[in-house]
Specification:
Elements lengths: L26 H11 L10 H8 L3 H13 L3 E3 L4 E3 L4 H10 L1 H17 L3 E7 L2 E7 L15 E3 L5 H6 L4 H10 L13 H14 L2 E4 L6 E9 L5 E10 L5 H20 L3
Antiparallel strand pairs: 1-2, 3-4, 3-8, 4-5, 6-7, 7-8
Length: 269
Amino acid sequence: MVSPNASALVSTTKTKEFPIDPADLITGVGRALSVIEAFNDEYGRMTVTQVSERTGIPRTAARRYLLNLCHFGYADTDNKFFWLSPRILRLGQGYLDGARLPRLVQPFIQRLAMSSGETVNVSVLDGHELVYVARSNSPRVVSIGFYAGARVPAHLVGAGPAILSTLSDTVLKKWLSEHEFSTFNTSAVLTSKKFEKVVINARKTNYCISVGNLDQGLTGVAVPLRDRHGECKAALSMTLQSSMWTEEKITEKLLPLIIETAQVLRSVI
């Protein structure tokens, strides 16, 4: 599995607007979820004060949320530091097990993997991150790519521009203005303007090839995955070794197979 070498910041994902009667709104649920999301690879163990600072929740309230998470088995503590327990994985696993999209695409990406000899992924955009929701079984003994459940900043891999290319100019501009273009590879520094050009180009070609943004030795290729109404639901992608796959070779050998699979899936999802 490929993962960023640097620590991700607290997710800037914003919840979708959903009409709800104020009487039905339980703000404590949102706060509890923000406490869970405050933990990451850099902040795997935190004090109450750190959780309070990262969530904006008053210290006394943050302490109560942490103690409740411990009580229900989703966190643990040594009375100074708090950390998430393995039980927390049940929350994300429920989506992977029950969501319709991963189940529908699995046989098709498996077929694509066998015909191409490469691992295939399907990912969705969650705010400013990509979440990988399906992966083919590897046709190789040693494979590269992302396992289901992995998250990565959307600007680092080809699937990000592929999905973002389907947004309107207004929505894209807003997304770009709120995104943090952190650098994971000093030889591939992306700015908002540079990335916007990548997205616009993906809009014109209907695919994106991303070289070395996450890792110098890796190249990604992705296309938008649309439903029968033309709405983008995800991205279909491969992560490849740059030493084996040039952009020209990808365009000639792999891209037609990826596009064909995306077209077939259009009538399925």
